[in-house]
Specification:
- 2 copies of one chain form a homodimer.
- Chain A starts with 6 loop residues before the first strand and ends in a 5-residue tail after the last helix.
- With 363 residues, the first copy, chain A, is an alpha/beta fold.
- In chain A, α2 links the parallel β2 and β3.
- In chain A, the strands form 4 sheets. Chain A has a 5-stranded mixed barrel.
- The mean pLDDT of chain A is 94.
- Chains A and B meet through β13, β15, β16, β17 and α11 of A and β13, β15, β16, β17 and α11 of B.
- β17 of chain A pairs parallel with β15 of chain B.
Chain lengths: 363, 363
C-alpha cells in the first residue's frame, strides 16, 4: 500500500482504563493487555492496523510518563523519539495539541490521524480504506474530520453524531454531537439513519487543528505557543519545556474544546466492525459465548444454572459457578470482582473506594 | 485433672470433607485446616480438648494412609505408633472395629471415646465434664453410649436421637434414631424436649463394642477375628494384616451397623456449644458477621448491596462484591467457587463433575 510521507498518526495510550478494573490496573491499563486473546495487546493491534497506512517513523505515541517502558516493551519497532511522555493527565485536548505542535514543527505539510489505543476493529481492510479516504479529504480541505460509525444497535453507552449536509461521498458536515442517549432516543437515532456513533477518531492537517485550537481553546494553544523556536524538534529542550508547562493546561476533552465549537467539522461515515471496548459488557457483547450464554477469558468454568456472565480470571484457575445471572466475575493481581453487568458503572467508584481504604495497593 | 490409665481415645481423621471444597481438598481435608482462624487446625483443637482427659499415650488417630504425614506434622506430640493407617476408605464401622480390636489387645480393661476430628466445641469445660461422666457410666455398665446435644434450633441438617427411659442423671436409653427431618418435624422435635442432635461421639468399653460388632455386624467382626494372637500389639504384623484384610470390610457406618440395631444403646444429654461444621452454612452460622451480615475468612472484602454471604479466600486478596445475597464465595488452590448457600448440597457433585472433566487436578 502506498504510504504518503506527510501522513502521521498519533496513538493516545495514556488512559488508566478503570472501567476494566481489576483487569486493567494503573500499572498496566487495558490498552497494554491482550484482551482478545490474540497474542497482541490492544495497543499493538492499533499499531499493526495503522502501520499499513502510515510509515512507522511517522507514528507517534502520546502517553503518561509511567507507561514509557510498556510502550517500548510492547512496540520495539516504535521510534523511541516518537514516544511523547505527558508529565500529567490533562484529557485529550492538551494531549492532541502537543502532538499537533510537535508534528507541525517536523513537517508543516503534515496531515494526521488521532487514534485511541483501546478500541477493537474487526474489518481492517475497510478501516484502511476509510482512513485513506479521510486523509485525502483533509489534505484537500481545511477540515476537522471525525469518524462516525454506522450504528448496528441502539447503544446507550456511546455519543452520537448527527450528520448534516453531504459534501462528498460518505462525508457530511456535522449537524450536532449528542451525549449518551436514553434507550428510546437511541432507537429513534438508529432508525433515522442520520445518527452515527462518535468513535473519537479524528483526521486533520496539523496546521488546521492548530488554528482550531487557537480559535476555540486559546488557553490551551497559548501554553504551546510559549515555546521558543525549535523546541519541538529538539528532544532535550522539548522535554524541559513540557515538564515545565504541560501541567498548566486545563484538563479538557478535544470534543468539548474544539469539535463541538468549531464550524469546519465534518464526519466520514464508516462501517468497519468497531467497538470502543469501553466496559465489561462491551467485551461480553463482543465475545463468543458458550451454550449458556457465558463468556470466559483465560479460565475454565464449570457452571450450573448460570447464564449471561463474563468470567475473566488471569492465571490458570477453575471457576465453579451456581446460580449466577448476568454477572462480571473478574480477577487479576490480588483483586476479585463480582458485580452484575447492569451495575458496572459502579466499578470506577469501587476503585476509588478501594484506594481510600487500602491505599494504592489495589489501584 | 485426674486421668485414668484405662481410658483411651480414638480420633477419626480420615475424611475428605468434600462439602467444604474447594477449601477442603483431598490433599488437605478440612480437619487439617485452621478453619476458625485460631492458629490450630480442627484436628489439633480436638486433640487439645481430649488430652486434658485422656493421657496422650492413650490417644489414637485413625486415618487414611495419605494423611500420615499431616497428622505427624500437626501433632508432633502424638505417639507415632498410635497413628493407625487405613489402606482404604470403609466408613466408620470398620474404622472403629479396628481401633477396638487394637485397644482391647493393649488393655482388656480399656474404655474408649470415639471422636470425629472436624467438630467445633466452644465450652471445653462442659465438654470435659460430659466426657468424664460418660466414661464413668460405660465403665460401670455394658453400654454403648452416644452423646446427644441439646438442640438450640430446629436444624434440618442433623440426625436426631429420641430419648427413652432415664437410667441416671443425664443418661437415658435411646428410643429412636431419626435421620435429618424436614423443618416442620424438626420444630416439633425441638419443642418436645425429647430429641437431641446426634453428634457422632461415642463412649464404650472396648470389650462391649467388640461384642456389639460380633452380634450386629458379624461380617465386620469376622475380618478382625482372622488376626492371629498378638497381631494388634506388633506394629509390623498389624500393618501386614491390615494391608491384606482391611479392604475386605464392607463400607458401613457405625450408626447403621451397630447403634441402630443394638439393645444396649444409651444417650448422655449434653450441652457444650457444639457444631459439626458440616457445611459452609454451618461455618457461616458459627462465625462473627459484619454489619451487612457477611462473614469473611482470611480475606478483605469491599461489599455493596451484598448480605448474608461467606467469603473464604485463601491467600491475601481483596474481594469486591456487588449485588450478592446469601452466597458462598470460596477460593483455594486454583479453584474459585461461587454458589448460593441454599445450593451447597450440590458441592459434592461439583467435585465429582470437576474430576470427570479435569481429572484429579482440582479434587
Amino acid at each position: 500500500m502506498e504510504q504518503s510521507q506527510h501522513r502521521y498518526c498519533v496513538i493516545m495510550c495514556g488512559g488508566i482504563g478503570s472501567r476494566f478494573w481489576p483487569y486493567s490496573r494503573v500499572e498496566r491499563p487495558k490498552q497494554f493487555i491482550d484482551f482478545l486473546g490474540t497474542g497482541r495487546s490492544l495497543l499493538q493491534l492499533t499499531f499493526d492496523r495503522i502501520s499499513r497506512i502510515v510509515p512507522s517513523k511517522n507514528i507517534f505515541f502520546i502517553t503518561n510518563e509511567a507507561y514509557d517502558g510498556l510502550v517500548r516493551e510492547q512496540l520495539p519497532e516504535a521510534e523511541p523519539a516518537n514516544i511523547l511522555l505527558e508529565p500529567a493527565r490533562r484529557n485529550t485536548a492538551p494531549c492532541i495539541a502537543w502532538a499537533a505542535w510537535h508534528i507541525a514543527a517536523l513537517d508543516p505539510q503534515a496531515s494526521m490521524i488521532v487514534l485511541p489505543s483501546d478500541h477493537v476493529i474487526t474489518r481492517e481492510d475497510e478501516f484502511a480504506a476509510s482512513v485513506i479516504r479521510g486523509f485525502e479529504f483533509v489534505e484537500r480541505n481545511d477540515a476537522l474530520l471525525t469518524l462516525g460509525i454506522t450504528p448496528v444497535r441502539p447503544e446507550t453507552g456511546y455519543g452520537y453524531i448527527q450528520i448534516g449536509q453531504s459534501v462528498e461521498e460518505k462525508i457530511n458536515k456535522v449537524k450536532t454531537f449528542t451525549e449518551k442517549p436514553p434507550l428510546d432516543l437511541a432507537k429513534v437515532f438508529v432508525e433515522s439513519g442520520e445518527f452515527f456513533w462518535n468513535a473519537g477518531i479524528f483526521l486533520w492537517r496539523a496546521d488546521v487543528i492548530k488554528a482550531a485550537l487557537f480559535k476555540n481553546a486559546p488557553d490551551v494553544a497559548a501554553v504551546f505557543e510559549k515555546a521558543s523556536d525549535g523546541v519541538f524538534v529538539d528532544p532535550a529542550k522539548e522535554k524541559e519545556f513540557i515538564e515545565k508547562e504541560f501541567s498548566s493546561c486545563v484538563s479538557i476533552s478535544i470534543d468539548y474544546a474544539v469539535m463541538e465549537r468549531a464550524d469546519n467539522v465534518y464526519v466520514e461515515t464508516v462501517s468497519f466492525g468497531w467497538s470502543d471496548l469501553g466496559s465489561w459488557s462491551a467485551l461480553y457483547d463482543l465475545s463468543p459465548k458458550n451454550g449458556d450464554g457465558n463468556v470466559t477469558q483465560n479460565c475454565t468454568v464449570l457452571s450450573y444454572n448460570s447464564h449471561g456472565n463474563i468470567f475473566a480470571i488471569r492465571g490458570e484457575k477453575l471457576i465453579v459457578a451456581e446460580g449466577l445471572e448476568d454477572y462480571i466475575i473478574a480477577e487479576a493481581d490480588g483483586v476479585l470482582l463480582i458485580c452484575p453487568k447492569a451495575k458496572e458503572q459502579k466499578i470506577k467508584q469501587m476503585v476509588i473506594d478501594a484506594k481510600m481504604k487500602f491505599g494504592d495497593k489495589y489501584e
